[in-house]
## 1
Amino acid sequence: MTVTVETLEKLERRITLVLPADTINNEVQTRLKKLARTVKADGFRPGKVPMSVVAQRYGYSVQYEVVNDKVGEAFAKAADEAALKVAGMPRISQKDEAPEGALAFDATFEVYPEVQIGDLATAEVEKVKAEVTDAAIDKTLDILRKQRRTFAQRAAAEGAAENDRVTIDFEGKIDGEPFEGGKAEAFQFIIGEGQMLEQFDKAVRGMKVGDSKTFPLQFPADYHGKDVAGKEADFLVTMKKVEQQHLPEIDDAFAKSLGIADGTVVGTIVQNPFQYGYKSIETLHSLKEGKADAIPESKFMNIPARVVLADDSRQEFAGAEVVPVAVFREALAKLLAGGGTAAAGDGPEYAFITNGVADFWTIGKAGALKAAADLGVKAAVIMPSSITDQTRKIEDLLTRGTAGIAISPINPANQGEVLAKAAAATNLITHDSDAPDSPRQVYIGMDNYEAGLICGKLVRDALPDGGKVMLFIGRLDQDNAQRRRQGCIDGILGREPDASRRDDPGGVIKSADGKYEILGTMTDQFDRAKAKANAEDALLRHPDVAAMVGLFEYNPPLILEALERAGRLVRPAVQ
C-alpha cells in the first residue's frame, strides 16, 4: 500500500491508517466463535451457547481488542513500508471521517534523526580537554546536598528565614474581590528559591507560626496569569508551619548515598495488596452472614498508602507513614510466609479477581488465602490476562454460582453490564481499582489520587530545583491509574489538589513557575518488555530527564534496569 507520511514538527510525524470494517468484523466473529466453545451460560450446555448471547456479553470487549491489534499491525506495516525508524510508541486517535466501509486512525509519533557519516579516513579529530574547577565541584556538591536535605520545625519563637520551608494559608483579592488561583490552604514553599514572586517571598520572612499579615503585591505585566497581570492585589497570609533546612555533611555516608543500591531510588509509595485480599474475603463473608456493620457509610474502606524510604530518620511524609526499607522487607516476608498456599475450608466460596498477572497480586493472593484459612471458607483467586478474559471469568462464576465477588475491574466504563449482572446475582465489591458508577457495595483500597499526590510531592522533595519528569504506567483505562497519575502530576506541579482534574496524557505539562516539566505518560499495557523499552526510549529522547516515576509496581525495577544499561544511576526514580 501507499503510505503518506506527514511531517509535523522537527522529528514528529503522522500517518493515517485505514482499516476495512469487514476485516475487523470478520476477526471479531472468529474470536467470538472461539470463545463460544468454552463459554458457560444458564440454560445451555458448555459449547452450546447461541452466538447471539456470546456476542451480547463479549462483543464490545472482543471488538476493543481486535481494533487495538489491527491498528498495531497496520502501523507496523506502514512504518516498515515507509522505512521509518520509529522512536517510541505512537499516539493513536480515531478520525471522525473515514471512507465508506472503513475505520480511519491517525498515528502520531517521532522518528530517529538521520545521521550522515562521511569519510573518516582523512578526518582530523580535535582532542578536547574539559577542566573541572573547584568551583564547579562545589556547585555540584551543593546541588546534591540540596537534593538530600531534610527539614525540622523551628522553635515557636523563631521567625521564618532564608531557605526555610513554610506552610501557609493565603487569600488574595483585587479591588476587594477574590480571584481564581488567589487562595490556598496548607500551601508549602521554600523561601529564597524563586518559587514565589519576590514581594510575596519577602513578606513572609520573619513571620512566626500563628502570625497573620496583610500586604500589597504588584503582579508583573508579563505574569503568566493574564487575568491578574499588571494588577495590584492585597494578600492575607497566615503562617501554619516554619521548618529549617538541614544539609547533609559531605562524608562517606553522603558519598554512599549517591549509589543506586542505597540512595538513588528516592522512595516508594506502597499499597497494601495483602490487606486488599484479606479484607475482600473478610468483607464478603460478613455480607454473606448478614452483618449490618460490614459496610461503612462512605462505602470506602481505606487501606492507606505508606512511604518506604532508605532514609529512616523521617516518621512521616506528606501525612503518610514512613516505613524504613529493612522494616518493610521483613514485614512483607512474614506476611507472605503466613499467607497459606491453599484455599481450604468448609464454608462458602468467594472469588478474588485481579486486573492482571503481577507480583503485586501474588501478595494480594496471600492475603485472600490467609483470610479464607482464618474464617474457614474457600477463596478462588483469579488473575485474568485481559478485559475479555476478566469478563468471561465473571460470567463463568455466575453460571456455576459464588457466594461473592471482589474484583479490580480492568475497564469499568465498558464493563458496566457484567458488573451490574454480578451485583444482581451475588455480593459484589471492588478493590484496588474502583467502579464508582457500578452497583458494587464497597470499594477496598487506597485513595489513588491521594497516593499519587504523595508520590508527586516526593518528586518535588527530591528535585527542589525543579527538572523534567517522565511518568510510566501500565494502562490508563483503569480508574486507579487515572487517579494515581493525576495526583502525581498535581503533586509535582505544586497545584491545589483537585481529584476531578484530568490532564492530557500526550501533552507536556509545566508548573506555573516553570521549574517542573512533565514530559508525558508512557503506557505499556502490562507488557514488561515494552515497559523497559519505554524507559530506555525516554532516556534516549530526553537525556536531560531529571526523574523517572513508575506508577505500577513493576515499572521502577525496569526503569532501574534501563538506567543501569545507560550508565546513569544517579537520577532519582520514584514509584
## 2
Amino acid sequence: MVEGHSVHRVASLHRKRLVGKRFVATSPNGRFEEGANRINGKVFSRIEAVGKNLFAFFVDNETQNEENNGNENDDDVVVVHVHFGMAGVWAVYLLDNETPPEPTSTNRLRLEHDGIVADLSAMTVQYGGMDLYNGKRAKLGEDPLRDDANPTRLWERVKSNKRKSIGALLMDQSYFTGPGNIYRAEILFKAGIHPDRLGNELEKHEFDLIWHHTTALLRRGYQSGSIVTVDPNEAKILGMPNLRRYIYNSSKCPRCGSSIKTWQINKRTCYACNSCQPRKSTTRAAVVTPQRSDCVPFNSHCARETAESRLKQSGPWRLTIKELKAELSKLGKSDFPSNMKKGQFVELLLLHQTETRRKSLFISSEKAAVEKALAGESLAVEHIAELAPEQARRARSKVVVVKNENNSSKLTVPQIKEQLRILGVKFPSKGKKMILLELLNDNKQINKQTIATTAPVTPYRVKSIDGLGDESASNLTVQLIQESDCKQNLKNATTEYQFKHLQKRKRIVPVTPDRKVKRIKRET
C-alpha cells in the first residue's frame, strides 16, 4: 500500500513539475474518459496530499494558481481525487531526457504539455467540484505531515473511544491519516505500547509518545523515500547496521530476542513484542497512589546545558531572549521590534524552523530506488509511487549489490541471477544454485568493463583430448588447452557457462576444492 509519506512526495514533486501548466488530458484505457474531458485544456492550479489521498485542482483561469491557497471559485474548479491503492503510480516523463512508454491497460489518465508527459495509474481516480474535496477531507483525520494537524483534537477523540484498540485506531484514516501497516507496527514498538491497548486506556504521555514517533517516522520516510524506522546509531549498537525495521515481518525482536507475535486486527496482520510492549491490565489498583505531575525541564545553574542542547531537547521555551535572537540571526532574521516579548520570539523561531524543515533534504525518487536495491528489497515490498515500474528498474539496474561478499551462499537463486544480470554474465536459465554461485564468485574478481584475457580463476582439468591418453591428459591444465585448436575460445571465456560447448567436445570439467572430480573415460 502506498502510505502517506509517498503521497506527500508525489505532491511535492508535482508542485515543481506540473502545477501552473495547461495540459491536454486523455484517458488511455477509457476508465476516466469523462474526467479527462472535464480537465482537458485546463490549468493544473494546485495539488494537496491528505494522508493516502491526493487531490489535484484544475481551473480555467491561468491566474488561479496555488498561491490562491484554496480560494478558487467553486464553480470553475475541477477536483481529481486519487487513491493509489497497492501499486498506483503517477509518473512524469521529461521528454528531453526520456521517451514515455506506450500507455498500458491500467493507465487511467495521461497529461501532456510541451516537453512533459504524466501518466496516472491508481485504484481510485474520480472527479468533481469542491464539494468532492470538502466531503472527503471532512472524513479524514489528522495528518502528521500537514501544518494543520491538531494532535490535541485527535487525543480527545482517541480518549473518548471505548471500543477500538490503539492498533485499530492507528490504521483508521479518520483518526490517524497516513500511517499504514508497516508504520503501525514500528510506531507502537518504538513507543513501547501494545497494539491491543484500548484507546481510552492510554495516558496522555503515552499518546504524546505515539504522535511523536508517528510524525518523526513519516517525516523521515518523506525525506528519504523509504520506510526506514531503525535509528542508525541503535542499529550499530545492536550489531545490525543494515537493519531497516524493528519488528515488521520479523521473527525475533532485535532488542530483547523474544519472538514476535502476529494476529489479525480488522483483517490486517499486526505485530508486537510482548516483552518490549507489555499488555497492561485494565483493572485499576486498589491502592491509591499520590498524584504525579508531568516533569517540566528547567534551566539548572548547577548542571548547565548549552543553548543548542536545550533547544533540541525541549524546544525554544527554555532559551533566553538573547539566545532566541542569536538563533533567529542564524536563520537570517535580525531586525526585531524593541517591545517584542519572549512568546513572540518563540513563535517566530518556530515558524522559521518549520520553513527550514520544508527545505530540508529531499532524496530523489531514483536515489530512493537505489537505496532499496542496496538494501536487497524488491519492488514488491515498497514500490515508488512517482516512478513507473520501468523507471524504477532502470534506476535499480545501475547498482551492483552483493549482500554478503564473504558468504554469497546466503543469497537465493533469484538474487544470484539478478546479480549476474547486473554484471552482464550469461548463465543457464535452469542452472543449479551451486553453478550460479561459482559464476558469481568468479566474476566478482573480473573487471566488469572488459572481457578477461587470461584463464578463469577456477582451474580446469582435461579428461580426454584427441591424440592423448587418459593418463597424460589427466595432468594437463587449461593453459595447455589454450595451445590447442580451442585456444581462442578459452582465451575469451570468463565463466563456466562459456565452456559449455567445450565440455561436450573435449570433456572439460571444473576442478573444485570441495569435491573430487571423478575420472571420465574417453568416449569411443
## 3
Amino acid sequence: MPAQLERLLGLRRPGRRLDAGGVVVGGTAGGIRHLAVDHLVRSDPALCQLAEWDLLHADQELIVWVSLVPATELIRLLADPGVALAPPRIGLAIKHAVADRPSHGDLSGRTFAAGLAHKVRARMSRSLSVAVITFLRAKRSPLDGGLKVECGGIAAVLQKLNLMIHMNAIHSASNDRTIHLDGIRGVAALAVALFHFSRAFDNSLISGSHPINRTLFSTLWNGHFAVALFFVLSGYLFFNKFHSSNVMKGAEAAAKRFLRLSIPILFVCLTAYAIHKLNLFTNQQAALLSGSDWLARWYKFEPDLSLAIIESLWLDFIAFDPARTYNSNLWTISYELFAVIGIIALAIASKNLNNFLKIVLVTGVTAVCYGTHYFEFMLGAALALALKIKQPKASCLIAISVITISLSMSALALPAGISEFASDLLYPLGATLLIAAASINEKIKDAFSNSFFVKLGEFSFGLYLMHFITINSVASSVYAATESLSLTFISYAVSTTVLSIGFTYIIDQPWTKLLNRIFRKRKPLLEQPLEIKA
C-alpha cells in the first residue's frame, strides 16, 4: 500500500499497536473519519498475518477499518487499477442494506480498485465521501473458500456513530448523477447561450443559408436541440434515481424540486429587476441596429418588483407569460418541475412490475406525450429503463457511429422533407441517442468527464439563467455603442462567465447543500448486521 494512501487513510505505522476496543480518528467536518473496530473476531493467528503489515504482532484480533474518504483525494491515488486497498489475492464481499433494499457488491482486490477508479473519477465532488472497508490483517486461506468472518458488531457501532456507508457510490451508478451526463448538460447550456447570441446580434449566423448549419457541427449552437437534450437528461436521471423508491420519498422529492428551482430563479429575477429599475437594459437600442425581432421582445414593461417575485414562485410554473417575464428562458421551468414529478411518479408506480409490463407502461405514456415537451422527458425515462434491463456495452466505433447519427439528425437546418419533424421527433430522438452512446462506452463517457466539461456542467444552471440577462444589458450596450460583433461577443462571454460562476458558488451550490441537509433522512443507513467475508 503506497505511503500516500497510508497517510490519507490515517493508518498507523507498522510495528505500532492499536488501542483495543476500536478508535475513531477525527478530522475536519468535511475531512476524513476513520473507525477502527477490533475484538470483532478471534481466529487462528496464522490466518491474520500479512507480510507488509505487522500492526498487532501476536494478537489474534482481526482489525477492520471503515473509512469515509473524500473522493477527490482518494481517486488521485487510485489511477493505477493495480493498486488495491485490499491485497489483490483477497476477495472482499460486503452485504448491507441500502434504502430498505439489500444489495451486494463484489469488492475483490483488483476489481475493487479498477471499479473505484472509474466510478469515483466519474463523481469528482468534494462533498462526496466514499466508504472504504479494508482488512489490514488477513491472508488467503489454503482452502478455496478462504477465511469467512461474520462481523455483525460493525452495524451497531456505525449506527451509534451515525456514519453512513455509501457503497452504491462505489459499485453502482443507479442512484447517482454521473459526471459525464453533467458534462453533456454543460455543453447544452453553452449551445443555448451561443444560439441566443446569434439571434440577438446576427440572425444570419443560424440561418439555413450557411452550409455549416446543415451539418452535424451546428448542434453546438442549436438551442432547440440543446433544450431537448436538457429534457431527455432530466427524464433519464430522475427515472434512474426513483425507480426503486416509494411514495413518501417521491413526495419529498417533488417539494424539494420546487424549492430547488424557485429560489435560485427568484435571485435571477430580482437581479433582472434591479437592472431594469436602473434602466440598464439596452436591448431595444441594440435590436434597432441588429434588426433582431427576438431581442426587441423583452423588457417592454415598467419595472415591477411584485412581478419578479410572483413570477419566480408561481407564474413560471403555472402561467408563463413571454411578454411579461424577467427571463425568457424560464419557459422551460414548468416542464422541469411537473414533467420531473411525473417521471418520479411513473418510476415509483412501475417499481413492482415485471420488465414486460414496465416496457408497456413507459412506451404507452411516451406515445401519449408525443407532440409535447413531455415527450422528451419520457424518452429519457424509456432510455433509463432500457439500459437497466439490458445494460449493454458497445465498442468505441459503434458509440461514435451512434453519436454521428444523433448529431446529423439534430442539425440546425434539416432538409425540407423532414424539418417539420425536427422539434417534435428528430431532436428528442437525437438527444436520446447521444445520451445512450455516452452511457454504453467507457471512452465516450470519459471524454464527457473531461475537466472542462465537468466544470461547464457545474456552471450549467447559472449559464442557462444568467446569459439572458447579459445579452440584454452588457452585450446590448457594447453592440449599441460599437456595432462590433467581436467586441460584443467578448463582453458577452466575459460577463456571462463571471455571473454564472458567481451564481453557482454564491447562490446555487449553497442553496442545494442546504436543501440536501433539510431533506436528508436521519435514519441510519444500515438496517441490519453487516456481513463481511474475506
